[in-house]
Amino acid sequence: MIDKKFIGKVLPSFRAVAEAGQLRFFAKATAESNPIYFDESAARDAGHRHLPLPPTFLFSLEFEQPDKSWRDEVGIQMARILHGEQSFTYHRLAYAGDVLRFESRIADIYDKKGGALSFVVRETRVTNQNDEHVADLRSVLVHRNG
Fold first, then answer.
1. Average pLDDT, whole number, for the chain?
2. Residue 103 CB burial class (10 angstroms; 0-12, 13-18, ≥19)
3. Which residue has the higher pLDDT, 57 or 55?
4. Which of 140, 141, 143 is nearest to 116 (CA)?
């Protein structure tokens, strides 16, 4: 079981750049059809300063976290995990070229099935290069124990 003493643990923060090529690739992979996610002119015509991030793209950027040592400290074994849930609360748009800062903490840890499964809830605050609040992410990682 994942020890509940890690509730409240602040994880290493990091920055990631939202690159236009990645945005286009993600939009295509998720079957997005709105041209504002592919075409700079269409984005500007729609009132955007650049290509906006497609919905849920922040989840992909969160994977770029360079320091994953917290997982070992907490006792998370990659071969035993499943992505259980993801939610987003958006506060403003982010665009290609933005430098986004991800600040995460473990918000909760709980068990189910008599301790066979541990659920680790991570909350992440995302801000842009101007320190403007872009979004809050919440993810639940399911860890199969023993």
1. 94
2. middle
3. 57
4. 143
Contacts of 136 (CB under 8 A, 6+ apart): 88, 89, 91, 123, 124, 125, 126
Q: How far is it, in rounded angstroms, from Cα 39 to Cα 16?
A: 22
pTM score over 0.85: yes
- CATH code linked to domain 4-19+53-144: 3.10.129.10
The pLDDT confidence band at residue 69, using thresholds 50, 70 and 90, is confident
Domain locations along the chain? 4-19+53-144
The strands making up 117-127's β-sheet, listed across from edge to edge, are 14-17, 99-112, 117-127, 133-144, 81-90
Cα gap 105→107, rounded to integer Å: 6
